[in-house]
Amino acid sequence: MKLKTLTAVLCACVLMCSGCSSKTPDASGAVPSVSMPEGSPAYYEYLGDIDYSTPTAALVWEQVDGENEGVYGIQYREVTDFNSITSQSEIPVCLYFYSSSARGSQNLSAGVEDLAQTLVGRVLFIAVDGVEADAVSTAYQVGGYPEFIMLNDNARISTFSGFDYGEWNIDDVTAWITDLGYEPDLTMLMR
């Protein structure tokens, strides 16, 4: 499947699920705890339920809820402890700051999902709605949206800011990540 076709399909899925949330309080009003998939990385400890409306979400590759066994995809899991996940992740973290109100965000987000899929197990992507999570944007001194910040052991190692380029697309972000030494595995897009 060509990348543009896959991007369009992923974009449609994101739009359909934009209001979805699997957080459903029980009769007592408590939100059930999240069960970690078997063999999950340690950073799952800082993740909540699948939630496409949360302002900070980790893009994780796992079995898609409600699908047949063996159907995997990128799921948006709420980040419940932002500071711990960025400081204690055993793999580098790429923060993707965006604005849900900006035109074209869905198309770029679909490309970021592709990157998360091709770098599964090597880079953890966290999507941050900079307007909704303004405290996080302020803490990382984000100048505009979109902006990508690569962290390793909670230290910034590089930044890709859309404002630094006249015109750019997800391929430029992919080149930036590749230049940092994280070569995407494109065979993951065929799964």
Question: CATH homologous superfamily - what is it?
Answer: Glutaredoxin
Structural class computed from helices and strand pairing: alpha+beta
- The N- and C-terminal alpha carbons lie at a distance of 10 Å
CATH architecture: 3-Layer(aba) Sandwich
Q: Which CATH class applies here?
A: Alpha Beta
As residue ranges, the low-confidence spans are: 1-34
Summed up, the helix count is 5
How many distinct beta strands? 7
Tell me the series of helices and strands, N- to C-terminal: HEEEHEHEHEEH
CATH topology: the name is Glutaredoxin
| Biggest sheet architecture | 7 strands, mixed
Please indicate the count of domains: 1
The overall average pLDDT, rounded, is 80
What Rg is obtained from the alpha carbons, in whole angstroms?
A: 16 Å
Sheet with the most strands: spatial strand order: 1-3-2-5-4-6-7
**Strand residue percentage:** 15-25%
Q: Which descriptor suits the 3D outline?
A: globular
Oligomer: single chain
Q: Helical proportion?
A: 25-40%
Write structural notes for this entry:
- By secondary structure, the chain is an alpha+beta fold.
- The protein has one domain: Glutaredoxin (3-Layer(aba) Sandwich), CATH 3.40.30.
- Helix content is 27%, strand content 24%.
- Strands 1-3-2-5-4-6-7 form a 7-stranded mixed sheet, with helices on both faces.
- The longest helix is centred in the N-terminal third of the chain and has 15 residues.
- The termini are close together.
- 33% of the residues are buried.
- The N terminus is likely disordered.
